[in-house]
Amino acid sequence: MAINKIGVKEVTPQIKKPWTPITLASVENYDVKLVEFEGDYFWHKHEKHDEFMYVCNGEISIDVKDSAPVNLKTGECALIEKGTVHRSKSQGKSLVMVFGRNTALSDFVKV
Question: What Pfam families does the database record attribute to this sequence (predicted)?
Answer without folding.
Answer: Cupin_2
